[in-house]
Design a protein that fits this description.
With 483 residues, this protein is of the alpha+beta class. It contains 17 helices and 6 strands. The chain has helices at 10-31, 37-45, 52-77, 82-105, 119-142, 149-177, 185-212, 218-240, 253-268, 270-277, 284-311, 316-334, 338-350, 356-372, 376-382, 385-396, 429-433; strands at 401-408, 413-416, 440-441, 445-446, 453-462, 469-478. Strands 1, 2, 3, 4, 5 and 6 form a 6-stranded antiparallel sheet that branches. Strand 4 (445-446) and strand 5 (453-462) form a beta hairpin. Helix 3 (52-77) packs parallel to helix 7 and helix 7 (185-212) runs antiparallel to helix 8. It is elongated.
Length: 483
């Protein structure tokens, strides 16, 4: 790799790494798991009712979104990839507004079921809201065909203060809601660093854009170098551990895989990053490359954050509320689809309940046929008209839903969006739970052969005329997508 301007020697970088990680550790110790006795009781009480982990995750998301808006606004102002940057700005703007509203007023879809009540958090939210007003207006202006320079200036001049206020808010919410009995300090510190990596990825894009304007001074270029060094040092700390600062290596193979992928993506971009440091302006292709890099790294580090949260004890605090809300606001409507109801009516009318031996034979046949992806039972399910409907429903849900299975009232698969391991569901948790309840939510698990953590949500399907239960509709949910 080419030597960078303002580069540090290895010994100075090592000292810098120690200082950075140690300062993060100290900050987290002061605001997170090392809680006062009063806040310790609050943390214990902040369970599913208040969505403690979801609040922490949402508050830290605001920091990232503040930099996403600033980075995209700069690109639009300079005419870089305007249409795609407008879409990114629009998405970040909408996400910031929804997240801020959820933290203040509650939103079960984000896992936060109640309004904020803690006075310190309410004051911090008010400060963020005050800065958000003019920025939101300026973002609306940037969406117009001919945005004014003033709109870009408002965002550029306010984003640093917005970042500071969102950091204060995140610290307060962490202090109020973190439960030290659920999350060990080492994991909490890794989450904190990974989330700051998301901020760094957007700062990298924003600072590259400022350099690309041709008006960047040496201070901006020095900030760019510092952002690069900070990202690289922090990524190495996450991948390899940094014991002196309390950072341990990845706790499982999946997080290790994601961090290794991030390292490969980072190394592949070094030629472009180095070239930017030697220039006073950028081409549109170079800025497009940096924008894509920022998105890739942001997505990758966000996946790492979510996986840390999902694999730590007490993850139900993060998932049960939004999964229930998603089932109630979206999935339950699918169970009333006339084609679904008609298909189950027809199956239940024409099929007798099989005995135990028949169930065993059917399951064995299904396992054998799915291993070859063909056979009379597989063909019967895959060619059923309801399977085509489920495939369409899954595509419409984008990456949020991984699979949909329709099960008749005898516990047998009628249709599904793709082949799944089981044909017989009698005895399975989804089936047994729904004998007495109206929703089943599984624990989180890693999808076999993939890199997606998912949970299952299953709902009963009722006959709208008689009220009788017709069967069960089961959904695989990509829980990483939800956050």
């Amino acid at each position: 790799m080419k030597t960078r301007k303002c580069s540090r020697s290895k010994s100075r970088k090592a000292a810098y790494a120690t200082a950075v990680c140690a300062s993060m550790a100290m900050a987290f110790t002061l605001t997170g798991p090392s809680l006062s006795n009063g806040n310790l009781n609050q943390a214990k009480a902040a369970g599913l009712g208040e969505g403690g982990r979801a609040r922490i995750n949402a508050s830290e998301k605001l920091m990232i979104l503040s930099q996403k808006m600033a980075a995209s606004a700069c690109s639009i102002d300079l005419g870089y990839n305007v249409e795609s940057e407008r879409e990114m700005l629009r998405n970040a703007h909408g996400n910031f507004r929804r997240t801020l509203d959820a933290l203040e007023l509650g939103d079960a879809r984000l896992g936060i079921s109640t309004p904020e009540t803690y006075s310190k958090a309410k004051i911090a939210l008010g400060k963020v809201r005050a800065l958000w007003g003019p920025i939101s207006t300026a973002v609306d202006g940037m969406q117009q065909d001919n945005p004014t320079d003033q709109d870009a200036k408002v965002i550029a001049q306010t984003n640093e203060q917005l970042l500071k206020e969102t950091e204060v808010l995140a610290s307060i919410i962490l202090n109020e809601y973190a439960n030290p009995f659920d999350l060990v300090l080492a994991d909490a510190l890794s989450i904190n660093i990974a989330e700051r990596q998301e901020v760094c990825s957007q700062k990298l894009k924003r600072e590259a854009c400022e350099i690309g304007s041709g008006q960047a001074d040496e201070a901006i270029k020095a900030d760019f170098v510092q952002t690069i060094d900070l990202f690289e040092i922090s990524l190495n700390a996450l991948r390899e551990g940094f014991p002196v600062a309390g950072v341990r290596p990845p706790p499982n193979d999946e997080i290790r895989y994601q961090l290794d992928q991030a390292w490969t993506e980072w190394q592949d971009a070094q030629t472009v990053i180095t070239a930017i440091m030697d220039k006073s302006n950028l081409t549109e292709d170079e800025m497009k490359h940096i924008s894509q890099l920022a998105k890739t790294l942001d997505d990758r580090m966000h996946t790492v954050v979510v996986q840390y949260l999902l694999t730590a004890p007490g993850a139900s605090d993060l998932l049960e509320i939004p999964l229930t809300a998603y089932a109630e606001t979206a999935l339950m409507e699918w169970t009333t689809n006339p084609e679904i109801v008609s298909a189950l009516r027809q199956r239940n009318k024409n099929a007798a309940a099989p005995d135990a031996d028949t169930l065993e034979q059917l399951q064995a046949q299904w396992v054998a046929e799915t291993a070859q992806s063909h056979g009379p039972l597989v063909e019967k399910v895959s060619t059923h008209p309801a399977s085509a409907l489920l495939k369409t429903k899954k595509l419409q849900a984008s990456d949020k839903i991984t699979e949909i299975v329709l099960i008749d009232n005898h516990g047998l698969v009628l249709a599904e969006s793709e082949l799944t391991p089981d044909y017989v569901h009698i005895g399975a948790p989804r089936w047994e739970t729904l004998q007495s309840k109206n929703i089943y939510i599984s624990d989180v698990h890693l999808e076999e052969g993939g890199h997606v953590y998912q949970a299952e949500v299953a709902l009963p399907v009722y006959d709208p005329d008689s009220g009788d239960r017709l069967g069960v509709m089961s959904f695989g949910i990509n829980v990483q997508y939800m956050f």
